[in-house]
Amino acid sequence: MGARLFFATPRQRALLCLGLAVAAGGAMVTVNTGVLVRDSLHRSAGDVSWALDAFGGGSMAAAAGAGLSTAAGAPAGVAPAATVAAVALWPRRDPGHLGHVHSALPAGHPHVRDAVATRAGWWHGHDYRIGTLHTRWPTSARSSA
Asked: How many helices (H) and strands (E) does the chain have?
């Protein structure tokens, strides 16, 4: 009954269309911001999501009317712990160019065109980004695909 009344009112339909347009625009901005930050920092999507979560948490607290002191204090309270965790957990040597093995890609695949065939698969190196062909960071014991 309520949905029928909602859609029967022209103003309500217009508000629904406006809300959908604003949500779509916000989603495009959010996704493209994440991609831009990830590519410029050469980090994984998980790293970027944590950074954007910290920013978004403070923004939402401010928008919810929690007050400026609470909105600024919540991220400021988490920042020291996050800094200590980052220093403790971040690799000491973090190269951008990584050599790695692809064990699941066929010989004719464009990604391994210049790779060297090894017993474990196709070895090559490049600036490494987590994505479709690289689902995790490579280690000496595991291949990346």
From this structure: 4, 3
